[in-house]
Amino acid sequence: MKAALKTDDGRFTIEDVEEPVLPAADWVKARVRMAGICGTDLRHWKKPDEHLACCIMGHELAGEVVEVGADVTNVAVGDRVLIESVLGCGHCEWCRVRQYNRCPGLYATRRASVSRAYAEYVVGPAHKFYRLPDAIGFDDASLLDTYAVCLHAHHLSGLTVNAKVAIVGAGPIGLGQAMLAKAGGADVLIVDTVDHSLAVARELGADHAVDSSSADPVAAVIAMTGGRGADIVFECVGGEEMPTTLPLATKLVRRGGKVVIVGGFEDGETRIPLEWQRIQMSEITLIPSASFAFHDIYPEQAEVLELVARGKLQTQKLITHRFPLDRINEAFDIAQDKARTGAIFVGLTI
């Protein structure tokens, strides 16, 4: 099959590689039709990373079932499917209680099978495959990994009706977070520096969209909340910007409020000075949020599929660019240079 393999310098090369085979009777093989470029992927773009060289990457994907094991009953050959790529080892204490997003072997396990979106075929356990309603396209479905990340953070936040919410970052996660907050009855202020992203945030219902390069987001939050600050702040940028965006998030939140850390950190230690006395004296809660899994009895991946099907979450306004897999390097450049290109979510047709 055709696949994009990571190179030593952090780009991609298109190669012919062996197709995956079903390793068990309860596994499914699918033809990938659409894969997304995530912020996590962009953090490794053009950066030498020895342990990723020659690997197939990508974890936001949808496709069509082409083979099922003898024990599979939830999907059939020909079904259009959303493919969840958060796959734990299945045996550890966390996996046993459906907290597989916390599995110590999460990344090694998922990269070995279902988290290989930038290729023609993937295999995975049947319970990670969800049938798509007719109205949801492959491109819509490829966004749903992102939305599940947002929903997990939303659940952790305890957001309630009439909450005052601030969101740092208007990328796919920040915009998804904004839609969920509005659906939950909150007033939403979102902060970014990219005009196009802020315009889309307004179209999606954000009450205030602040360009932090020309306006003071703290003053804007104070004005929105009667001087208190936001009840909940979602940090949705992460990466190299975290030393700037996390301190900002703690300045936007009110006394007794919550900061949910959705954006990902770089590997290793990250030193970020914070105003710890204010955080402690104000009893501000910092809540790390990692990927997604189950909320009570419901898989969060299935929940966002239902929310899109019911029109509670929009997708097409976020999908700004589509490229064939052969042009993956160009697609990554476009996704990274969002201030110039207006990119929000970039998809790869495979």
From TrEMBL:
InterPro entries: ADH-like_C, ADH-like_N, ADH_Zn_CS, ER, GroES-like_sf, NAD(P)-bd_dom_sf, Zn_alcohol_dh. SMART domains: PKS_ER. The keyword Transmembrane helix does not apply. Its cofactor is Zn(2+). Keywords: Metal-binding, Oxidoreductase, Zinc. Pfam families: ADH_N, ADH_zinc_N. Residues 6-346 form the Enoyl reductase (ER) domain. The keyword Zinc applies. Belongs to the zinc-containing alcohol dehydrogenase family. This is Zinc-binding dehydrogenase. It comes from Sphingomonas longa. The lineage of its organism: Bacteria, Pseudomonadati, Pseudomonadota, Alphaproteobacteria, Sphingomonadales.
